[in-house]
Write a structure and sequence with these properties.
The chain is of the alpha+beta class and 223 residues long. The protein is built from 3 helices and 13 strands. The protein has one domain. Helix 1 packs antiparallel against helix 3.
């Protein structure tokens, strides 16, 4: 009886652990849509945007791949990154970039008058270089990663599409490794489908296995 009870507790613990891991509230989106001047050929993967809920704030990690880097052009509304946030009480804090940081720093804004990016529509929040000349095209510091925090917001509030159906936009200089568009600039945006974070799905399965073990032990005890 003690052994069965211990296994039941273990099964419940594993189940709750797995289900809690899935409820960690993190979503990853892929940049798959190209609006660069000159096009992108068959290229369909330019980087990712990951949003993680942390208390009453949301952490953003925007990662470009294949040598792509953030720049500011007129096609991207003069912004490095755009999204939708019309919440009057939210702010953008803790902005960092890698591997370099512009000399004049980075700034973030929410609840903006609509900012337009070519081919993707209007957005109400942005991250930009505080000094625009730090990030103009090919003269910009090399930045392949942007991280920042949006306060007083939830994933659901920030994972909203604009009138064109777009969620997030990065203005990029296409890297040499992205051979279909190397050297070209312009916006890329994400697909509307959410991709589970690596590891979340296995933990979810672990949770189901743990709950299944608990149910099996109860059934055996009843028999």
């Amino acid at each position: 009886m003690r052994s069965a009870k211990a296994l039941s507790v273990l099964g419940l613990s594993i189940g709750l652990l797995g289900m809690t891991a899935v409820a960690s509230n993190a979503d990853t989106f892929n940049f798959t849509s190209c609006h660069l001047s000159g096009g992108c050929g068959t290229a369909t993967s330019f980087g990712t945007v990951t949003l993680t809920q942390s208390g009453t704030s949301v952490n953003f990690d925007v990662v470009l791949n294949s040598g792509n880097r953030f720049v500011e052009t007129g096609a991207g509304g003069g912004e490095l990154f755009l999204f939708n946030d019309s919440l009057s009480g939210s702010t953008i804090t803790s902005i960092t970039s890698s591997p370099n940081t512009p000399a004049g720093g980075l700034s973030g804004f929410t609840d903006l008058s609509p900012v337009h990016a070519d081919g993707t529509g209007d957005f109400t929040a942005s991250v930009e270089c505080t000094v625009a000349s730090d990030c103009n095209g090919g003269s910009a510091n090399t930045m392949t990663l942007l991280t920042f925090v949006v306060t007083n917001a939830t994933l659901a509030q920030l994972e909203t599409a604009n009138a064109n159906g777009n969620f997030f936009v990065a203005d990029i200089l296409c890297g040499a490794a992205q051979t279909q568009c190397g050297g070209l600039t312009g916006p890329v945006d994400v697909s509307p489908s959410v991709v589970p974070l690596p590891g979340a799905l296995p933990l979810f399965v672990t949770g189901l296995v743990g709950l299944g073990l608990l149910g099996r032990r109860k059934k055996t005890a009843a028999g």
